[in-house]
Amino acid sequence: MNKLIQNEMLKLLARKRLIVVGIILSILVVLFTYAQYQTVQTQLKKLGTTDWRTTLQQQIIDTQNRLSNSRIPDDFKKELEVRVKQQQYYLDNDINPAEPGAPSFTKEFMENSIDLLLPLMIMVIASDLVSSEFSMGSIKLLLTRPVKRWKILFSKYVTLLLAISLIIAMMGMISYLISGVVFGFKGWTAPEFIGFQITEAGFDASGASIIPQWQFILMDFGVVWFAAVVVGTLSFMVSVLIRSTAAGMGIILALLIAGAILSNMVSSWTSAKYFFMLNMRLTDYLNGSPPPIEGMTLSFSLAVLTVWWLLALFISFGVFTKKDIY
Amino acid sequence: MCEVFILKKPLSIVITALSAVLLCVWLGGFLYAVQTNLNVQADESKNTSQDTGKKSQAVNNEKDLKVVAVGDSLTRGMGDETGKGYIGYLTDEMKAKSKKPVIVQNLGISGQKSDSLLAQVKTYSVTRQLKEADYILITIGGNDLFQGGQTLVDFQPAAVKSIQQKYLHNLEAILSHVRSSNSGAVIFLVGLYNPFIELENGKDTSQVVREWNYKSAEAAAKQIKTVYVPTFDLFELKVNDYLYTDRFHPNSKGYRLIAERVAALLTW
Amino acid sequence: MITLSVKNLKKKIGKKEIIKGIDIELYEGEVFGFLGPNGAGKTTTIRMLTGLIRPTSGSISICGYDLQKDFTNAMMHLGCIVENPELYPFLSGYDNLVHFARMIPGFQSKRLAEVIELVGLSERIHDKVKTYSLGMRQRLGIAQALLGNPKVLILDEPTNGLDPAGIREMRQFIRDLAKNEGLSVLVSSHLLSEIQLLCDRVAIISKGAVIQTDTVHALLSSQEKMVWRVEPLQQAKQILESATEVVELEDCLITDFDANKAGLWSRELVNSGIQIIEMNRRLPALEDLFLELTGGDRIE
C-alpha cells in the first residue's frame, strides 16, 4: 500500500498541479495583502496623526468604565472583557490593532477561503485524480496489475488526503509569509475569544473563554481541513463517476457557487441546511459568526458533512470496484 | 534490494512524509476544535440550567442584598483587566457567602473629588437609591489629595493642609447626608493607600497619606454604623505588584485585596 | 501445457448479449491470433480476459488461477497491452516502469534492467514518454507488460500505427518471445495479413461468438482456390459452372481447388476450343476466408 501511495504522489508531483495551486494562492494572497494594506492606510489617514497607543489606551479605559457599569448585560460584559484583554495585549506587544499581524491575516484568510477558494484548489487536485487516468487511458494499465481495485482507489484517496493537508499548509505558509512582510510576523499569542454563540436570544457568551491565537489558528486549520476533506471526497466521487475531468470540475464548481449564493439568501428555506455547501463555513462556529440558517450548530454541520463524506466514499468505492472499463 | 529503485525520487518521499505529518497535525487541530467547542456547548447548557436554578431561588427568597457604591475611579474599578474592581469582587464574595441575590448599584465616576461626590449624593435619584441600600460603599479623596500625582510631586505642606481641610469638610457632609437618608445601612469608607510609596520622597508622602486617613477615620467615627476600612497597609509592601500599569490605580490583585478586607467586615 | 483457459465466456449489457459464449485455450509457446471485424466483440473479450470488464458468466483461468476468484494471483501471470499502451506522458519511461513495478508483489529490481534491455530502450529510458515515437511507446508498453515475468501475454493490436519496419520488428519480437521464453501470446488484430504471418493458431470471432478455431495453416489449406485465365471468358464460365461453383473476378475465373478434378476441367475447356492462358493454385487471403466463413460480415 505504501508503494501505491508513493506511485500516486509521484504522479501528482510530476503533473505540477500543486505548484499551480501554489502560484494561484501566492498571487491571490499578494492581492489580498495589498487590499488589506490599503484599508489600513485609509484608516490611519482618517485617524490623523494621533499615536495609536494613546488612542488604544483610551479605548481600554473607556471599555473598563463601561464594564463596571452594573446595568450592562452579562454576556455583553464578556465581550467587552475580551476586547479589553485583546487591546491590552496589542498595547503590551506593541501591535497596532488597525494593522493585523500575519497570524491574524492568515486566520482571516483561511476563514474566508473555507467555502470557495480552498474547495476550488482542492477540486483541481481531487477531480483529476481518477478521471485523468480514464481520459489518458492509463487506467487500463493501472487496473491490469496484480493489485485489487479497492487498494488502488484507496491509495488514490490517501494521496488526496495528503494533498489536501499539503495545500492547507501551503496556504497557511504563503499567507503568513507574504502578509508578514507587510504587517509583521507577530501576534501568535494574542488572546482569542472562543465559545460564544449567536442565538435567538441574542449574543450568548456565557461559555466563552480565552485562548492564545495560535491555538485558535490550529483549530481553524483543523476545521478547514475537515471541510476540505469533505469537498475533496465529493470531487473524488465525481472523478470516479465521470470520465471527463472538466465536466467533473464543472459540477463541483456549480455546487460550490450555488452554495455561496444560497447561504446568502436561504435563511427561510430551512431544508437547505442539509446541503453540504451550506455547512462548509465551520470556522464561523468557532469565531461566533451567525450560521446561514438559524438553529445550525457545529455538531449539526459536522454531522451533515460526515454523512455526505461517508456517502461519497461509499459510492466511490462501490462504483470503482464494480465498474467495467471500456 | 527492492528499495533501491524506489528511492530514486527522494523529493517525492520527503513531500509524502511531510504531508503525512501535516495530515496528523490538521486532524489533531480538528479534533481539538471539535472537542473544545462541543465542551463549550455542553458547559453552556449546564450554565443555563444553573442560571434558571438561581432565578427560581430568587423568586423564593425575596430578601436580597442591596449594595450602593459611590466614589471615584476605585469604585469604577479602573485598572482592573476584568473591569470588576473591588466592588465586583466584593459582590462575588457576598453572593457566595450570603447565598442571596446581591443587587449592586455602582455610581462611581472616574476622577471624582469630594465636592462633586457631595453634589452627587444630594441628587434625588442617588438619595433614593441610598435609602434602599443595605450596604453603602464609599471611596473618595484620592483625587483631592493626589490630583493625578501633582500634589506630592511638588510637595508643599501648606497646600496639602488646605486641601485636607476642604476634603474633611466635604466628607463630613457626605457621611451625614448618607446617614440621614438611610439610618440602617452599614457604611464602609475605604481609605487611601500610597501609590507613590516607592518613589524618592515615599516617606514624606506616606506621612501625608497616614495623616489624611487618620482624619478620615475620625470623620467616619462620628457617624453610627460607619466603618473606616484601611487600605494603606495592603499596599505598603510590594506596591507595584498591586498597581495597574499607570502606577496609580490598583490592578486586579490590588482590587481583590481591598475587596477581601471589606468582605471580612461584613456580618449577616 | 494450457496457460490460458476461457470457458463459455458471456457478457450481457442490459438485455443485449454482446459476447455469446467464447471458449479458448492457449498453450505454452504459441502465438494465438484473435481475429474479427470491429464490433465483433474482440475488444470486449480482451478486456474481460484482463479483468477490466466483469463477465456475466463463464470462467477465465490463467495458469490455473481463476481471474474472478483469485484476481491477484491470476494477474501475476498475465501481462497485457489493451489498445494503445497509454503510459504516463509526463513521467520518464523509467519512472513509468518503476510505477508499474511497484504494483507487483515481490518485484526484483534486476528485472527492470532486463526488461529495458529486452525492448531496447536503454538509451532513451530516462526521457519523458511524451518525447517518444509511437514505436518506442509500443516497446515501452511491452516492457511494462513483461515486468512481472508473465506466462501469458495479451496484446491488443500490437502493430497498430507502426511503420512497416516497425511492424516487421514487432512481429519478430513477438515470435521470439513465444519461442525463447515460452510465453503464450494472444494477439488481436484487424490487419489480417498480420495474423497470417504472426500466429500459429487463430480464432475467428464474429458477432460475439467464435466461428472457428484452427491452425492458420489448416484453415487456409482447406480453402485453397484455382484461378483460371481463359479466353473467351464467358464460354469457359458456362462450361465450368456445369461442374462446380465459379466466381468471376476481373478477367479471371475462380473455383475451389480439387486436385482430382482440375485436370478433367482443363481438358474439357481445351476440347471446347478455349485457350487457357494461366491456371493457378492459390492460398486465399484471410479476407476472402473471412467472407467465406461469416457469409458477408464485413471486415476492413
TrEMBL record, chain A:
In its keyword annotation, does this UniProt entry include Transferase?
A: no
Keywords in alphabetical order: Membrane, Transmembrane, Transmembrane helix
Its transmembrane ranges are: 18-37, 116-136, 157-178, 223-242, 249-276, 296-320
| A Pfam family per the record | ABC2_membrane_2
UniProt name for this protein = ABC-2 type transport system permease protein
UniProtKB/TrEMBL annotation, chain C:
Which Pfam families does the record cross-reference, listed alphabetically?
ABC_tran
Q: Which domain of life is it from?
A: Bacteria
Record bears the keyword Nucleotide-binding: yes
Q: List, alphabetically, the SMART domains matched.
A: AAA
Q: What keywords tag this UniProt record?
A: ATP-binding, Nucleotide-binding, Transport
Q: What family is this?
A: Belongs to the ABC transporter superfamily.
Q: What is this protein called?
A: ABC-2 type transport system ATP-binding protein
Source organism:
Peribacillus deserti
